[in-house]
Design a protein that fits this description.
The structure holds two protein chains of two kinds. By secondary structure, chain A is of the alpha+beta class. Chain A is built from five helices and five strands; from the N terminus they run ββαβββαααα. Chain B has three domains: 7-53, 2-Layer Sandwich (Uridine Diphospho-n-acetylenolpyruvylglucosamine Reductase, domain 2), CATH 3.30.43.10; 63-174, Uridine Diphospho-n-acetylenolpyruvylglucosamine Reductase, domain 3; 180-290, Enolase-like, domain 1, CATH 3.30.390.50. Chain B has helices spanning 14-24, 37-42, 79-84, 86-91, 93-100, 105-108, 113-118, 127-132, 229-235, 242-255, 266-290, and strands spanning 7-9, 28-31, 50-53, 63-66, 70-74, 136-141, 144-149, 154-156, 159-160, 167-174, 180-187, 198-207, 210-219, 226-227. The longest helix of chain B is centred in the C-terminal third of the chain and has 25 residues, at 266-290. Classes of the chains: A alpha+beta, B alpha+beta.
């Protein structure tokens, strides 16, 4: 039996009737045509399908779409909402050459977003640990780690003037 | 062959969930985070016709601590939340470490500690430390509630002492005594993401300089996590020295029953049990001394 659900994706609201066995990944890609979210291993190892749900990164391939009813979802299409300017994380990935074939990139950038929203000043070790659920077969990871460190610097909240210590 | 198609139920009350499990019978599965269940379906190890999700049952995701009593981790409490929980980090660091070392970031944002136990993998990251700390499971089923020591829960790979239509609602860990320490150590080929090739959980309590109480478990080296009674015997009522820790590690290696598989071979596992148990005992002993 199909379930009537409401998905809130990148500030758009969709009403859908969905079979219970379909994953969030299926629905994002096939029903909503948001193909920036990739499907790699389908078993939670590679991270290509990473999306942000209620502020946390998850694997969309292991999430039933029906269970996402009323939840706030952000995909890679929502990272730079204007569609013109890139998000600082995306800018740094381009500048540092952290993208080669690009298949892992949406997942990598959303894992970076997840990290920086919890920890705005991560160490290199923390950056590497935050990518434990994302595989890249091209870059050797170093450029990606550099890009995330650079974007953390860019996104640093500016110090308020006249603030006494 | 196509993957099984199933009905999904998300009851808001536990008794409804139990009733559904009883009514639907065969090929019905309980789901918390789904990170093991949906992979098993994908690999066609199971063919669910009905899935009962616990996520909408209120209060089941709670992590609560009562001083003098202990810690209760609800069935849908996420691995990531347990790993970051302030009280768990302060009073149960071994449990926080085990949760924080399970799988990867995304899986920890979806999967649960109780689900990791119910999946009953011999390599379950959360089992050894909880076993060493004498945890118990709160279970509800058609006959009502019962409490089962975690030590009696694992029967074999993927098999537990759960009866049909029973649900584990939480895991309870008693408050550690003063002068006690607990540790979790594990090894895996690919850092954190991989399943553990060998792991150990140790909890001990000191009386003066001597070890008064001690529980040692190892994971991924037998059909279930295993207790090491002969190793414990070597250490009990003794003052721990490096030599004694080495001897205990070697005994644990003899007591373990590892197999060779994709993650490690039998020989390597046996050797690593000796190393892990030695290190874990020394670490737990140090924590216990600091915790007086």
């Amino acid at each position: 039996m199909k379930h009537e659900i409401t998905l809130k994706v990148n500030n758009d609201t969709y009403s859908l009737a969905i079979d219970p066995w379909r994953t969030l990944n299926d629905v994002l890609r096939e029903d909503l045509n948001l193909t920036g979210t990739k499907l790699g291993c389908g078993s939670g190892d590679c991270g290509a399908c990473t999306v942000i749900v209620d502020g946390r990164s998850i694997s969309s391939c292991l999430t039933l779409a029906v269970e996402m009813d009323q939840k706030k979802i952000m995909t890679i299409e929502g990272l730079a909402p204007s569609g013109e300017e890139l998000h600082p994380i995306q800018e740094s990935f381009v500048e540092k050459g952290a993208i080669q074939c690009g298949f892992c990139t949406p997942g990598m950038e959303l894992s970076a977003y997840n990290l920086l929203s919890q920890n705005p000043h991560p160490s290199e070790k923390e950056i590497r640990e935050s990518l434990s659920g994302n595989l890249c077969r091209c870059t050797g990871y170093n450029k990606i780690v550099e890009a995330i460190a650079e974007s953390a610097d860019k996104m640093k909240p500016k110090k308020k003037k006249g603030r006494k210590k | 062959m196509t993957l099984s198609r199933f009905d999904l139920f998300s009851p808001e009350r536990l008794d409804e969930a139990v009733a559904l499990l009883k009514e639907k019978g065969k090929d019905t599965f309980v789901m918390a985070g789904g990170t093991d269940l949906l992979i098993k379906r994908r690999h066609q190890v199971i063919h669910p016709r009905t899935i009962v999700s616990l996520k909408k049952i209120s209060g089941l995701n709670r992590i609560s601590f009562r001083s003098g009593k202990g810690l209760t981790i609800g069935a849908t409490a996420l691995l990531g939340d347990v790993a970051r929980h302030r009280t768990v980090l302060r009073i149960y660091p071994a449990i926080a470490k085990a949760a924080g070392n399970t799988a990867n970031v995304q899986i920890r944002n979806m999967g649960t500690v109780v689900g990791n136990l119910c999946n009953a993998s011999p390599a379950a990251d959360n089992a050894p430390a909880l076993l060493a700390m004498n945890a118990a499971l709160n279970i509800v089923g058609p006959q009502g509630k019962r409490v089962l020591p975690l030590e009696d829960f694992f029967l074999g790979p993927g098999f537990t002492a759960l009866q049909p239509a029973e649900i584990v609602t939480s895991v309870f860990v008693p408050m550690p005594l003063s002068g006690s320490g607990a540790t979790y150590l594990h090894l895996s080929a690919r850092g954190r993401i991989d399943c553990s090739a060998a792991s150990t959980g140790v909890a001990l309590t000191l009386k003066g300089p001597r070890i008064d109480k001690l529980r040692i478990f190892i994971g991924a080296c037998g059909p279930t996590p295993l207790r090491m009674p002969k190793t414990e015997k070597i250490l009990i009522n003794q003052k721990l020295t490096k030599t004694l820790a080495v001897r205990a590690g070697l005994q644990a290696s003899k007591e373990s029953k590892p197999i060779s598989d994709v993650r490690a071979n039998e020989d390597y596992r046996s050797k690593m049990v000796a190393v892990l148990v030695r290190r874990a005992i020394l670490e737990a002993n140090k924590l216990a001394r600091d915790n007086k």
